[in-house]
Amino acid sequence: MEQTKNPRQRRWWQLGMGLLVGVCFGFLLQKGGATDYSVIIGQLLFSDMTVVKIMLAAMVTGMVGFHALHAVGAATLKPKQGSAGATVIGGVLFGVGFGLLGYCPGTVAGAAGHGALDAVAGMAGIVIGAGLFAAAYPLLDRAVLHRGEFGDLTLPRLLHVNPWVVIVPVALGVLALFAWFSSAGL
Prior knowledge:
The chain is mostly helical.
């Protein structure tokens, strides 16, 4: 009997699944209104919390889903190493791009997928920006990206608690925030 390979070892399967999940994610962003430029600008002006609600709902769903799978042995937590330098560089690049274009990488792909020409230009900007970052990476890697390394730290590891001690209050906080958004008409 032939041994079944780990899906991560089958590159085409992994790429295909990534594409499928990406298309589904873009479709759901579009259906949720998160690819509409006016919704994104409303978020940046704190007058429309549609995108914030989508992202918080996804975060809580992911936390609960992952840790439920982890609890039954169906998933393994493997956080990436992090550093203050990489976080600051990434945050600045993301923020500048988001502020200038009015889309984040996920919403720009979804908007381009349904034909928004400004988003298609944004996709070109992402490709150019990624190329410039790749070219500057050796210098950034030596000078900035490893400053303030904090390893593969997670909030539960930092607090030395069971992950559910963090997940439950975060989920309840998000629900309270949704209630507040609703009462405020956001």
